[in-house]
Amino acid sequence: MAGARVEPLGGGDPAALGPYELLGRLASGGMGRIYLARSSGGRLVAVKTLLAEGVVSDVDRRRFTREVELAQRIDSAFTARVRDADPGAERPWMAIDYIAAPSLSELVRSAGVLPGSAVRWLAAGTAEALVTLHGEGIIHRDLKPQNILLPLAGPRVIDFGISHANDLTRTTLTLGTIAFTSPEQARGEPSTEASDVYSLGATLFHLALGRPPYRADSDTLALLARVQRGELDLEGLPKELATLIRPCLAADPRQRPVPAEMLDRFRRSLAGLPVSQDGRRWLPQRWTDLITQYERQGRVLARGAGSATGDTDPEGLTADLRTDVVPPPDSTRVYTRERERVAREQAERERAERERAEKEEAERERARVAQERLREQEWQRELERRKAEEDRRRAEEKARREAAKRERERAEQQAARERAARGRQQAPRASSGSAGMPSRPARPAPAPSAPAPSGKSSSVVGVLVVLAVIAFFVWQNARAGSSDGEGGSGLTSSASPTTGAAGSTSVAGSGTGYEPDPEPTPDADDEAFGAVSTGDCLTAYDDGYGDWSTDTPKTVDCDAADAYLRVTSTEDGISGSGCPGGSGESFWSHVGSVTEFSTTLCVERQFRVGECFVAKHRGDRMTDARLMTVWSCGADTVPKGYDVILQITGRWRAESTYPPGYCSRSGTDAEDYWRFEVNDDRTVLCVRWV
């Protein structure tokens, strides 16, 4: 199927209505006809007009005018909008947005039923359309899968123009399809807002199970009688949908929820699931493929490349826009003995294939373990290299400081010796000014090689030398104290004595003192990892090629759609040996700019219904599932070593045993499912191959 069915225009059809060029017929009924048309600007519209032989009657024109007025009052993202109309034209017409999308009935028929999450997503959009219609006093009266179109942006309700406002004359004519009408409609009673609610419940049941909520019966009158009595057959309805759909199908209209209440229920049921409105996040691949074909056809028609008259387009659409591939013929029948031999050979090949697959799996697991060990060894070597580099830098800095200290002490000792020598040379001049001092014995002092004085002069000289030495030390201490009082050059202590290498005493001056090692400063990556705490959720995931999807962790609210990881603990260093290693669990190590900033985050995957990951398919088993990946469900490629994409259809608390068909969505669901126990075997995932 390549798109919508567009019939060629007939001899009695006009070429245009108003400013719109007619391309073909979309539908015909007893009272009207709908054409596919294109504006001069390339916009596609569905043009509805009355069918009338001769002149249109005043009654029909008034009814059509009223229909236009009702439809123009509706402006919702979940309905088709009226773009233009001319009820007074010779042939009255109304132009509505053409939605290039299949109906729900065609999708179920061609692509199968929906999972519960997708049903709830569709229900929320349709309920919002009913809230808008009922707010304008309009009852649809014909809500069914055929009247709900589904582009990827969300459901669109159509054909509400044929319904009647509450202030119009009521009719007992039932307009809806029997299987989707309410009991009161089937009995010929007036339709109400509750009637639309019942029809929506029946439509949602059809999406989940592929049939109406009544026992199958080819007898139309028998089915009508069941609908009138409300004799439902809800066998197979998934338990996750029963609490949402069952109240809508109450036989008593007063017990059904109103659309606003339904909308609130459906939205609350979607809590914790992806917030995106794009259908690719919700719908199975078969559904999105068919919807994409319709969108492609719409783009072709809007460009004017193809019509219903037989013109072809560059993308290969045919005249009636419906083509399909002829299936290959069945295998030639063989005799029983030959068939048995073929079966044995097939079984042997499958056994050999399983053994080969198991061997490859074991080899791959050994390679993975070896790779992990090698990676950890590389991290350890890198850590040791950085530590050695840091130790070498510290040792060089220490040696530099010690050499500077020795040089400073040597200079101070040399200066002290020079000062002492100058004091000895000045001693004789000082003695000439001290003639009147009393004579007393004095300790001999070092003197030049000249002959030493005798008697009173010798005593005076000795006293003067002692006084000069004492005065020099007093002056030196006063100078050091003054230097400290004026700020100096950053010393941490005031003129405290130090002992030189030769045992002499020197005084600390205003030179450069000992500076402690500066505190290491974390870089941006260190800070990003250091800011993560236990319980935080991260946007990162396994990219399928041996790395995380982001270079540094980014935290988000754990209820966010992109919260793929939850941090279970944080560890110092780069070894993940302390982290759990079960399915859906891993670790993220960061080698810091210095050793103390190295960090390891223990993480577990947060699984959500609708997300996909990659795995390998062997016979009827799924092996080597890469559960930490988040892969596009519609991707055409997978990482090397993998060959399937699995989509999560259910997430439940793990149990000790699982009954047959545990993951099936209904008793008639024939699709294959697989189970994975994850997060320390606390959770079980149901998945299917997409």
UniProtKB/TrEMBL annotation:
InterPro entries xrefs: Kinase-like_dom_sf, NEK_Ser/Thr_kinase, Prot_kinase_dom, Ser/Thr_kinase_AS
Biased composition (Pro residues): 441-451
Segments of skewed composition (Low complexity): 491-515
Pfam family, one: Pkinase
Ranges of biased composition (kind: Acidic residues): 516-528
Limits of the Protein kinase domain: 20-270
Top-rank EC class of the record's enzyme: transferase
Comp. bias (Basic and acidic residues): 335-364, 381-421
An MF annotation (GO) of this entry: protein serine/threonine kinase activity
Region (Disordered): 302-364, 381-457, 481-528
Keyword tags: ATP-binding, Kinase, Nucleotide-binding, Transferase
Keyword Nuclease listed: no
Enzyme Commission number, as recorded: 2.7.11.1
Protein name per its UniProtKB record: non-specific serine/threonine protein kinase
Organism phylogeny: Bacteria, Bacillati, Actinomycetota, Actinomycetes, Kitasatosporales
